[in-house]
């Protein structure tokens, strides 16, 4: 499951204040503009596509396209706004420490 940092929740909510923007859609791009290729495409969306998985984190809605769901599983999404620029970063969800044995 995809988790959002508090900063990502704030950024998604801020972005979706725009008219006709119910959430942020994450998908794999159909074509690459460089040799390495972009791993994911992020855009504002009026709503989810019928096949999208909807992730709601404290009212911040993400719509995950079927081709992006596996890439997002077990990840944490972070985001920030600097001036007019929005940036997203994704990292592995930290593993929970092992439980302490009961005495």
Model description:
The chain is an alpha/beta fold. It has a single domain (about 5-30, about 40-90), classed as Hypothetical Protein Aq_1857, Chain: A. The protein is about 15% helix and about 35% strand. It contains two helices and seven strands. It has helices at about 5-15, 65-70; strands spanning about 5, 25, 40-45, 55, 60-65, 75-80, 85-90. The protein has a four-stranded mixed sheet with strand order 3-2-5-4. Strands 1-6-7 form a three-stranded mixed sheet. Strand 4 and strand 5 (about 60-65) form a beta hairpin. The longest helix has 10 residues, at about 5-15. The model has no long low-confidence stretch (mean pLDDT about 85).
Give the topology.
Blueprint (H helix, E strand, L loop, with lengths): L2 E2 L1 H10 L7 E5 L13 E5 L7 E5 L2 E5 L1 H7 L2 E8 L2 E8 L11
Parallel strand pairs: 1-6, 2-5
Antiparallel strand pairs: 2-3, 4-5, 6-7
């Amino acid at each position: 499951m995809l988790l959002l940092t508090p900063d990502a929740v704030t950024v998604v909510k801020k972005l979706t204040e725009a008219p006709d923007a119910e959430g942020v859609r994450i998908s794999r791009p159909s074509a690459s503009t460089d040799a390495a290729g972009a791993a994911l495409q992020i855009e504002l969306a009026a709503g989810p596509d019928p096949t999208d998985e909807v992730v709601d984190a404290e009212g911040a809605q993400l719509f995950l396209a079927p081709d992006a769901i596996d890439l997002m599983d077990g990840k944490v999404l972070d985001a920030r706004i600097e001036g007019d620029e929005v940036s997203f970063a994704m990292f592995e969800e930290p593993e929970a420490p092992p439980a302490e044995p009961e005495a």
